[in-house]
Every structure is written in structure tokens, then in C-alpha cells.
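We append the chain.
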Amino acid sequence: MRVDSYPLQSISPTIRHARCHLISGRATTLYLPYLLFAALGIAWIILSDRVLLGLNVSRDLIALTSFQTLKGIGFVLCTAGAFYYLHRRNKQALLDSTRSLESFGTIARASYDLIWRCAPSGQDYELLHASDVEKYLDIIEDPEGCVHPADRRGDMAGLVKGTGNKFEPYKTTTRLKVGGVYRYFETWVFPIFDRDGQLAEFFGTCRDVHEFVIAEQSLRRNEEMLRLAAEVGGVGIWEWDIPNNILEVSAETRRQYEADIHSPTDLKRFIHPDDYPEIRGAMLAAKSHCEPFDVQYRIITADQQLRWIHNKGAAVKGDKSGQKHMLGISQDITRLKQAESRLRQLAFYDPLTGLQNRQRGQDFLSHRLRDSEIDGNHVAVCLIDIDYFSSLNETYGPETGDRILLDTAQRLGTLCGPDDLLCRYGADVFLLVLCSSQPSDFLFRLEVLERQLADTLKIDDMRFFVSLSASYAQAPDDGSSANELLCAAQSAMYRAKHNSRGKLVRFSGNMLESSLRFEAIRNALKSAVSQHEFSVFYQPLYHLEDKQLAGFEALVRWTSETLGVVGPDEFIPIAERVGLIGDIDNFVLSEISHQISQWKTAGHDFKTVGFNLSPRNLEEEGCADVFHEKVEQLGLSPDELVLEVTETAMIHDAVTAASNIERLSDLGYALSIDDFGTGFSSLENLFRFTFKKIKIDKSFIQAITNSERHANLVRSVITMAYQLHMDVVAEGVETPDQLRLLREWGCDILQGYLYARPVPAAEAENYLRWRCVV
């Protein structure tokens, strides 16, 4: 590529000077043919006439010849004048063309940043114009290297032929390095041909369109991103030309409706009839007031599929005429609606049985109670619980448990009338809300329910006896609100589960009092240990024969800040049920350790202290080792304690309890069966474990003077214990007659109010000093 050595500013004047010189030379050359034509014509006429005179032609002929000469001269002059006129016109046209060319050049230089030409081979470039020399210095210094490698053309003629297979002007976009950075230029290439039609050279122009190209690329990217977002997000775009009633929609909108849509009339065919009035009202309001709208509606596609569409849009004014058009987007929200429906189903319905759940049942009950105040109908509730469901579920697996739940739901569903509701209230509990204008109707349904409380269920060739416990409460006698009525039913259910499984229990006022008392004790127990509300009392035990002190039994007492004095028979079962008995046991054991240490320091010789082991703790794996570790940490030894175990501890989880009892015996602890005769344990346990003592429950001792059967039973137990080399402790001895009979039967140790009541530790020390009954 060649670049002229003279400055780019002088390129244009030089071209103009060369063109003017060319025009002047051509004008001088154009005069010569006319002058030569006139001179030759006149010379020919004159000479030809002279020749005729020289030949002695007659005068008449000569006269005629002279006339012809004048005519010829006149013809030549006229012809020469005509040629001159034509010459003048051509000269003026040439001057006009030159001025037009110069004007075009000025416009071209103002419109284009670069003007160039090159040989047909694409080599030997000549830069004719540059709008800014400093700006395009890179192109001047290295014209070939300034072109981006991907945009280099190679053979220009071949490229031109390749673009259209003929030599025609063409346009392309080229990246040129300007200021060290590649910029986009719009390039026009014009082929120039010689008189023979052969390609002579190329002229070209370059215009900096970098900002335009970047903006165009950004626009295309944004359009592509918008298209992809619409496709991925399922968003369709539409525009309604209101004056012409033409609806333009995107491909996604057509996919949503599964049809081509060109007008709102086409759209109406697919909208669900129930939803059309709302949509029409929203569109008309938007059209009239230019307000945005946001609607959700159903459509029925061309292939009869039901879909949900979310449509948002607004009307906007167009040109100055005030004509409006409407723009908006549409989205297929069918999956969202289906998910909402599933969530609603999960939120308000039981997925297994299909029944409404607890929340819906409570809401239904509240509505029925409010309606009953107006229509006078009666409302009652029944709670139905599957007995031993957790055991069935654990033994036979959750699939069998689900089958039992389904069968129970179907059986109970037969009790529901048109105004009733059956819902799943808990894991194995159902709530039946009954509504009737006649209270007697409830009695009939309860009779039907009682007949269904026990049934045999067959699942996969296996028969299961499934019993139900039920409770019943009726408004307004048992409660006027949903919460009060359900609390009453739950109180009756508590009684049904603990006293009479497989039966229907109707609520009574004392049940609620028991439930309230239970909750009050449960709540107060949680803070009783930390607030030091417990204390330990000690009741002496005496040998019957010599009335000498045989030891103490540690008894926990509770004086609540809110409830006052609460008996152990009341709070210990609740503590075991709610899992707080471990904290109480730790407190009692710590107090025993502290008291024994004080007695030893004071030099008192005491025997043992009885400690009641909780049945709940004995049911835990490794309980014996954990207990022994606590005893050692407190500085006690096994021979200082007598561990009292109730018969009920060997009923619930006999295997684990037996393992712990055997382990405690191996560790050296003396064991005593407490409250003997009140449980249902086998006599085999007396032989299986090394028990030192049997404590006969006070209910038997206090009846021996009034009941021969009780007296015979106590005497038999004493005889049996004697044969087994076990000491017998009689609990609750309160009268001399009881003492006399026990002495006759050979009882070893007595405990009761006749000798001593339970006393605080300070008073218990007096019994250590006296050593015998005073």
C-alpha cells in the first residue's frame, strides 16, 4: 500500500488544479477542428472557381460559378457557426460537470473520514483524504497493520466478484486501529473501469460508525437476552393497536394459547366464560383511563387444555392525534396454580386420608358455634383415638399403620351427616363435629359410634383387633367456644385412655378440674428444683421385737410457691410422665448424701437410708451404672442405701428393669420391694432377684383389723418372706391393734404414724440419739 508523501491537507487542492489544467487543454483542442473545417471549405470553393476561370469557361458559367462560390462560402460560415455554438454548449456543460464534481468531492470529504483508491489487485493503496490527520495517524503509518486480522480482504477484485459475481459497489464493516484501539468503520468500495470495460482501479470511503455499531450490538444483545428471558421465564409479549383492532403477539404468547391470535376477538374464544367478565372490565378500564391492569384468568387452549394466564399491561397514547395502543405481557402460571393447589391441599387436608386437617376442623367448629347462636342448632364434638396405635405401627410397619388409619377414617365417615365434619386431629386421633337441630340425634350417633369402637381388621391375610377410645362434649353445657369444647373433649379422652380404653367417655365437670390441676402441677414442676421448693423428710423404721431404730426412708416433699403443699402421690406420677423425675431423684440423692455426711461428723451410728428408685429410670438402658456413678461422686457407699423398687417397675419394660435391678444387686446395693401387693408382678421375681426386704403396702396393713381376707393375706406374705429369709416391713402402722397382730405374725420392722411421722433432717437427728421408740 502506498501513501502520498505530501500532507493530506494538500491532497484536495492538488487534485482540483490538475483537473482545471486538463479542462483548459481539452478546450483548446476542441477549437482546431472547427477552424480547420472553415479554412478547407473556403479554400476549396475559391480554388475550384479559379480552376474553372483558368479553363476559359463561358462567362455565364463563370457568373454561375461565382454565385455558387458565394453560396458555398455562406454554407461553410453557417456550418462553422453551428459547430461553434455546439462547442460553447459542450464547454459550459463541462464546466458545470466540473463544479458538480468538486461539490460532490466536498460533500464526500465532509461525509467520510477516509477516501482511498487502490489497484485492482488490492495492492498499492493511495489515501486521498483524511478528516483528522492526528486521529488517523496509525492508518497513515501502517495502513496494512491497522486493519483487524479478521477483516483483511486480500484480493480486492476477487472479493468484489465474490460478493455478487459482478463488479458492483458494495458495503462492508471493517475494524481499523485508531489510537491503539480498533474501531468500526463503514466502508464503501467502488470499482472503476476503463474504455475497454476492464477494471482499472478501486475507489473507497470509510466512515467511523463505532458508536453506532456498539449501540447496535448492545441492542441486539438486549433483544436476545429479552427473547431468552421470555422463553425461559415463559413470558409472552403483546401489543394491541386499538384504532385498527390488530393484536400483535410474540411466539411465547402463541404457545400459551396454542393458536395464532390477531385480534381481541381471537383471544376471547379461548378465555374461560366465568373469567371473561372480569378481564373485559379490566381491559375497558385500562383503555378508557390509561390505567395499568393485572389479572389472572383461565383459558381453554385449542387442544382443550385448561391453563392459567397472568396478564399485565397498560394503555399508552401514541402520536399527537391521541390514538392509543396497549402493551403488556402474559405468563403461563398453570404450574404455579397447581403448586398452590397442592400446597393448599397439604395445608388444610391430610394427604393420607383426604380428610381436612386439625386447623380446618377447628375453623369449622368455630363457624358452627357462631351459626348455632343464630339458627339455634346444637353442636357437639367427639375425639376418637386408636388404642395402641404406636405399638401397631412399630410392630407391623408404617404401611400397616396407614391401612389402619384409612379403615378407621372410612368407618367414622359413615357417622357424618351433611352438616357434620370428620377431620384428622392428630397422628392417631380423629375429630368428629356433629351438628343437629335435635340433641336426641346425638344420642343415636353415639350409640352407633360405641358399636364401632372395637372391630377386627384384615390386612394381607392378617387379622388385627383395633379398638378405639372416644370422648364426647356438647355445647353450650361443656363449653361455648371451640377451644373450651375441645379442652373438655380432651379431658374426657385423657380419662378414657387411662381408665377405660375401648370405650366412649362423656365429659363431666370434675374431668376439667383434673386436667387443669395436672397442667398446673406440670408447669410448676419445671421450676421447682431450681427455685428450691423441694425438701427431704425422713421417717424412722423400727424393729418390732426390741423397738430399736432400723433406719430411715427418705421422702420428698414439695411446697410450691403457687400451689402450696402438693403431696407426693400427686406430683411424682406427673413428674414421671413428663420426664422430670430424674431431676427430683438427683436432688433427693444429693440431700441424702449431705445428711449422712453430717450425721457421721456428729458421731451418730445409723443403719441405712431408703431411697425410692423411679420405675421410669429403671426402664432406661444402663441406669444401674449411671446411678452407681452418681453415688460414688456424692461420697456414698452402696451399704448405706436401701433401694426401694415398686412392682410396677417390673411391669412396663420387664427386660430392661430386670437387667438394671440385677446389676444394682451385683454392685452391692440392698434391694427392697416397695408397696408389695399393689402391682401385678410375678412371684418369680422374689426368687430371681436378691431382695433383702418386702414392704407390705399400707392399704393392706390398715385393713387387717377389719377384713379377715386382708389379715390372712398379710400373714401369708410374712410367712412366705420368713421362708425366703427376707425381712418384712409393714407400712402405715397407725393403731395398737395393728401392732399386736403384726407382732403375733412375726413381722420384723414397722413404719408408720404409730411410732413416728416423717420429719425434717434436724428432727430426724433426735431419733438417732434416742435409738429406740420413746
Observations:
- Residues 1-28, 161-165 have pLDDT under 50 and may be disordered.
